[in-house]
Amino acid sequence: MSMQPSTRESLSLLLRELKLPTFVERFAEVADRAAKEGWGFECYLHELCAAEISERRQRRIGRHLKHSGLPRDKTLATLKQERLPAPVPVGQTKPIPRGVAG
Questions:
Q1: Residue 83 falls within a domain, yes or no?
Q2: pLDDT per residue over 64-89, tens digit each?
């Protein structure tokens, strides 16, 4: 069940319009794999959605790291607690919930 070149080109344009760059990059490769392995449509779509979400998460983390201005090697392990006004219990830190500004 291979797509015709015109169908692939059209799908690529539609996916770009929807701003799904990972879909654009991977849909043909995943479609070929799905055909070879006998995947259903839902499995094919799931694979593409998972890839898109993963790529978006990585790009978002990269943007936040760049915007933070922190050195790439900065982690809680390298935190110099003596420079802080109060000690930070490193083993007891928790992620800040979404929507909570500090």
A1: no
A2: 989 988 888 888 788 787 888 877 67
Containing domain of residue 17, as a range?
Answer: 5-69
Rounded CA-CA distance 65/60 in Å is 9
Residue 88 lies in a domain: no
* pTM of the predicted model as reported, rounded to 2 decimal places: 0.65
Nearest to 30 by CA among 50, 59, 60, 56: 50
Q: What does the alpha-carbon distance between residue 52 and residue 70 come to, in Å, rounded to a whole number? A: 27
CB of 27 closer than 8 Å to CB of 51:
no
How many independent structural domains does the chain possess? 1
Helix residue spans in 1-102 (DSSP H):
5-17, 21-37, 41-68
Residue-wise pLDDT for 44-64, tens only, equals: 999 999 999 999 999 999 999
Which residues, at least 6 apart from 59, have a Cβ–Cβ distance to it below 8 Å? none
